[in-house]
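One such shown below:
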Amino acid sequence: MKLTDKKYEDDSSAEEIQLLKNQVSLIADDIICFEEIPTQTPFSVNTCFDEIERLVEESGASYLLIDLINANRPDAVARKVLNQRFARLEDSIKHTAYCTGKNVLINTAIRFVMFGTGLTSYTVSTLRKDALLEIENVK
Protein backbone atom coordinates (compact mmCIF):
# COMPACT_ATOMS: atom_id res chain seq x y z
CA MET A 1 0.00 0.00 0.00
CA LYS A 2 1.13 3.53 -0.75
CA LEU A 3 -0.03 6.96 0.41
CA THR A 4 -2.16 8.84 -2.09
CA ASP A 5 -3.27 12.43 -2.48
CA LYS A 6 -6.26 12.02 -0.18
CA LYS A 7 -7.06 13.66 3.12
CA TYR A 8 -6.08 11.31 5.92
CA GLU A 9 -8.38 11.66 8.90
CA ASP A 10 -8.95 9.85 12.20
CA ASP A 11 -10.80 7.08 10.35
CA SER A 12 -7.57 6.09 8.58
CA SER A 13 -6.68 2.42 8.69
CA ALA A 14 -3.83 1.14 10.84
CA GLU A 15 -1.86 0.58 7.63
CA GLU A 16 -2.42 4.19 6.51
CA ILE A 17 -1.36 5.48 9.93
CA GLN A 18 1.84 3.44 9.72
CA LEU A 19 2.51 4.84 6.24
CA LEU A 20 2.09 8.36 7.65
CA LYS A 21 4.56 7.57 10.44
CA ASN A 22 6.97 6.19 7.83
CA GLN A 23 7.16 9.69 6.34
CA VAL A 24 9.42 10.50 9.32
CA SER A 25 12.85 8.92 9.69
CA LEU A 26 16.20 9.38 11.37
CA ILE A 27 18.70 9.96 8.54
CA ALA A 28 21.71 10.74 10.75
CA ASP A 29 22.40 10.62 14.48
CA ASP A 30 21.10 14.14 14.87
CA ILE A 31 18.87 14.73 11.79
CA ILE A 32 15.24 13.76 11.37
CA CYS A 33 13.74 13.86 7.88
CA PHE A 34 10.03 14.44 7.38
CA GLU A 35 8.65 13.97 3.87
CA GLU A 36 5.35 15.83 3.90
CA ILE A 37 2.39 14.27 2.11
CA PRO A 38 0.55 16.21 -0.61
CA THR A 39 -2.55 17.15 1.42
CA GLN A 40 -2.17 17.93 5.11
CA THR A 41 -4.94 17.54 7.66
CA PRO A 42 -4.83 18.06 11.41
CA PHE A 43 -4.80 14.26 11.76
CA SER A 44 -1.88 13.73 9.37
CA VAL A 45 0.09 16.59 10.91
CA ASN A 46 -0.44 15.26 14.44
CA THR A 47 0.44 11.70 13.40
CA CYS A 48 3.69 12.78 11.75
CA PHE A 49 4.67 15.20 14.51
CA ASP A 50 4.01 12.53 17.14
CA GLU A 51 6.61 10.48 15.28
CA ILE A 52 9.01 13.44 15.10
CA GLU A 53 8.67 13.98 18.85
CA ARG A 54 9.21 10.27 19.50
CA LEU A 55 12.44 10.30 17.46
CA VAL A 56 13.66 13.51 19.12
CA GLU A 57 13.11 11.93 22.53
CA GLU A 58 14.66 8.57 21.65
CA SER A 59 17.62 9.78 19.60
CA GLY A 60 18.30 13.27 20.86
CA ALA A 61 18.21 14.53 17.26
CA SER A 62 18.11 18.32 17.13
CA TYR A 63 17.96 19.07 13.40
CA LEU A 64 14.96 18.68 11.15
CA LEU A 65 14.91 18.34 7.37
CA ILE A 66 11.44 18.81 5.94
CA ASP A 67 10.88 17.81 2.34
CA LEU A 68 7.91 19.70 0.92
CA ILE A 69 8.60 19.00 -2.74
CA ASN A 70 5.39 16.96 -3.15
CA ALA A 71 3.30 18.95 -0.66
CA ASN A 72 0.48 21.32 -1.45
CA ARG A 73 -0.04 24.52 0.50
CA PRO A 74 -1.78 23.63 3.80
CA ASP A 75 -5.16 25.16 4.54
CA ALA A 76 -5.68 27.46 7.53
CA VAL A 77 -6.75 24.64 9.86
CA ALA A 78 -3.69 22.51 9.04
CA ARG A 79 -1.41 25.60 9.36
CA LYS A 80 -2.74 26.23 12.86
CA VAL A 81 -1.94 22.66 13.91
CA LEU A 82 1.50 22.94 12.27
CA ASN A 83 2.14 26.12 14.31
CA GLN A 84 1.16 24.37 17.52
CA ARG A 85 3.23 21.28 16.84
CA PHE A 86 6.33 23.23 15.80
CA ALA A 87 6.03 25.36 18.95
CA ARG A 88 6.26 22.17 21.03
CA LEU A 89 9.68 21.51 19.44
CA GLU A 90 11.10 24.93 20.30
CA ASP A 91 13.41 23.61 23.02
CA SER A 92 14.50 20.52 21.05
CA ILE A 93 15.18 21.60 17.48
CA LYS A 94 18.22 23.79 16.76
CA HIS A 95 17.52 24.24 13.05
CA THR A 96 14.88 23.29 10.50
CA ALA A 97 15.89 23.04 6.84
CA TYR A 98 13.17 22.90 4.20
CA CYS A 99 13.44 21.75 0.62
CA THR A 100 10.55 22.85 -1.56
CA GLY A 101 11.48 22.43 -5.18
CA LYS A 102 10.50 25.65 -6.88
CA ASN A 103 7.14 26.00 -5.16
CA VAL A 104 6.69 29.70 -4.36
CA LEU A 105 3.36 29.09 -2.57
CA ILE A 106 4.99 26.59 -0.21
CA ASN A 107 7.89 29.00 0.41
CA THR A 108 5.36 31.63 1.50
CA ALA A 109 3.41 29.16 3.64
CA ILE A 110 6.62 28.22 5.49
CA ARG A 111 7.04 31.79 6.68
CA PHE A 112 3.43 31.86 7.95
CA VAL A 113 3.88 28.58 9.80
CA MET A 114 7.28 29.41 11.31
CA PHE A 115 6.23 32.91 12.38
CA GLY A 116 4.02 31.59 15.16
CA THR A 117 6.29 28.86 16.50
CA GLY A 118 9.19 30.36 18.41
CA LEU A 119 11.61 28.48 16.11
CA THR A 120 13.78 31.11 14.49
CA SER A 121 16.55 29.08 12.89
CA TYR A 122 15.32 27.79 9.57
CA THR A 123 16.33 27.86 5.93
CA VAL A 124 14.52 27.18 2.67
CA SER A 125 16.28 25.44 -0.21
CA THR A 126 15.16 24.10 -3.55
CA LEU A 127 16.93 20.73 -3.29
CA ARG A 128 17.25 18.23 -0.45
CA LYS A 129 21.06 18.14 -0.78
CA ASP A 130 21.15 21.91 -0.30
CA ALA A 131 18.89 21.67 2.75
CA LEU A 132 21.28 19.11 4.25
CA LEU A 133 24.19 21.48 3.59
CA GLU A 134 22.31 24.22 5.41
CA ILE A 135 22.03 21.94 8.43
CA GLU A 136 25.77 21.18 8.30
CA ASN A 137 26.51 24.92 8.05
CA VAL A 138 24.66 25.72 11.28
CA LYS A 139 26.13 22.86 13.32
Observations:
- The chain has a mean pLDDT of 91.
- Strands lie at 24-28, 31-35, 63-67, 95-99, 122-125.
- Residues 42-59 form the longest helix (18 residues).
- The helical segments are 14-21, 42-59, 76-88, 104-115, 128-138.
